[in-house]
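Running this now, will post back.
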Amino acid sequence: MTTVRKIVLAYSGGLDTSVMLHWLKHTYGCEVIAFAADLGQAEELSGLESKALATGASKVIVDDLRREFVEDFVFPALRAGAVYEDGYLLGTSLARPLIAKRQMEIAAAEGADAVAHGATGKGNDQVRFELTYYAKNPEVKVIAPWRTWPFKSRSDLIAYAKDNRIPVTATAAKPYSSDRNLMHISFEGGILEDPWSEPPSDMYILTRSQEDARLTPEYVEVEFAQGVPVSWNGQRLPAVELLTTANKAGGENGIGRIDIVENRLVGMKSRGVYETPGATVLHTAHRALESITLDREVVRFKHSLAAKMAVMIYNGFWYSPEFALVQQAIDSTQGRVSGCVRLKLFKGVATVVGRKSPFSLYRHDLATFEEENVYQQADAEGFIKLNALRLQTSAKLQARL
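Update: finished.
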């Protein structure tokens, strides 16, 4: 086994990393520093430091990265319209490069010669963490216990935790894994591995069910400046507070739940259940504002780039040359994506009911069905004939065959 003096572990306090902290210390016989990123996990961070120290950590570092997370990761992804496989807004995927970047900074500051993470050998997080590690330090030693230790399942981890008196919240009855931050909460594994089974109703945390959502619609207005949400119902808010406010409104109205089977980078399909209330509302509003401020062909080209960006984020290539290039291109489209969008939130749906912008390309005098003197309808005849030319040529050829 490789000799290691000091490890910085990406620590959440959940089942996997709690067992991992204890296992790393006893397996490598070295100092283990537990690093936790505060990305808005709320009560999940309560007691984290004392728990890590009791489990064997030599030091615990909890960094508040909420502002950086929202401003530099969540909002750029929303500005891009990045959605993986038509449903997933990438809440976990966006958090990983930030956590790994900060972990590498701590490793350098603490003189650690290795970093470790709790991702399994079957998932995408191992790739997201490690690509960032290597992008920041090509020579770093990476320890991924799920790929080397003797445990085969989370049931094994629960038994190990019990034998070693490690406090964990996972049980045999609720063995699914969850990941929470300011943008979303995800659930996977355990009782969710049967794609035919409906998720248990008591699992959800951020959103009400459609049945229990508000009985009356809630109208909200979101203002954007160059593609970035800056105001909620006329009140200008900092990024973290704005997303928190959007989460509350979306959650109370049952918005943002999805249950999907997605394609992992490693080649398998995986079921994920996600709650993303605020970002779903903001994404819907942003798309509506782009519809009146961006040129038709720019919108189509940007959507193709957004799909590419979503795959890059999902697969862990945030710190890559191609990602920087795509992000630069997308950001160049947002200069005039400023204005206000009004939405109706009701029973699980965010419906756009109004949009306005000083940079709007929508012209009432062109679009109206009432009398006007701007658009010459007779011009459409030649336009249609030119577009039909190739179809007519093909039809005539077909008729001769």
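The mean pLDDT is 94. More later if anyone needs it.
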